[in-house]
Amino acid sequence: MPSSAQIASALAVLAFGSVEAAMGPAFSTGPVSDNSWIREATSTLVLPQAPSNNQGDASLWVGMGTSNGDLIQAIADNWQSDAWSVYAYTLTSTSANTQMPVQGPAKDATAGQRVTMHYKYDDASGNYTQTAQINNRTVSTLSTSSGHAQGWGSSVECAEENCGTVGAHSWINTKIILDTADPDYINTMGKGEGVTGDMKTSDGGKTWTVSRIDIPEYSF
């Protein structure tokens, strides 16, 4: 099992949105082996209640860091309201020290709804296409030229440290499809304190699934 420092390093490869952002417990995988990359990934978030006493900007997401330094991350965002805002989003790398956000349309969602975040590489364009769905209805899409995805992980994020308490929640039906099989990919799995969930493969390491990831309540 990777150490917490290794988990943080792997997710740093995911080019987390802001070095100042505060992060809660996460489930992470990656980086992939040198001869592979993530071709497709999907996971469904069962939305919790909006954070209590949120005075800032809280977000739940699963993301993929890429060889270009981009972060592909559809987001369920809460900004001091009773609802979540769901949208496709990529944080694109513009230099070694700067990034620029690219965002798709946003749609409100509420506790109990299921938000599916799907990322797929398109060979024809060389882009990753994001699709964000609420209860199986597409609400936001985005396509970006981002290189090849190197890792995948979940996040409980607060833009500062004033997001109150984010409720326990689950990610279900997670699937990560690699370009070529990597049977050792399971050794990159990391879980923060209180996080549960396990990956498995039935095809020698090309397709990895996690039936359920449980993330505990977290207070910023």
Q: What's this model, at a glance?
A:
With 220 residues, the protein is mostly beta strands.
Number of strands: 17
Sequence of secondary-structure elements: HEEEEEEEEEEEEEEEEE
Provide the low-confidence segments as ranges: 1-19
Figure out the total of helices.
1
Helix content: under 10%
Strand composition percent: over 45%
Main β sheet profile? 8 strands, antiparallel
Distance between the termini: 26 Å
Descriptors:
1 helix, 7-stranded antiparallel β-sheet, mainly beta, 220 residues, 8-stranded antiparallel β-sheet
Describe the structure.
This protein is mostly beta strands and 220 residues long. 5% of the residues lie in helices and 53% in strands. It has 1 helix and 17 strands. The chain has one helix at residues 4-13, and strands at residues 22-23, 27-29, 38-46, 57-66, 71-79, 84-93, 99-109, 114-122, 127-134, 137-144, 149-158, 165-166, 169-178, 190-191, 200-201, 207-215, 218-219. Strands 1, 2, 4, 5, 6, 7, 11 and 14 form an 8-stranded antiparallel β-sheet that branches. Strands 10-9-8-3-13-16-15 form a 7-stranded antiparallel β-sheet, with no helix packed on it. Residues 1-19 have low confidence and may be disordered.
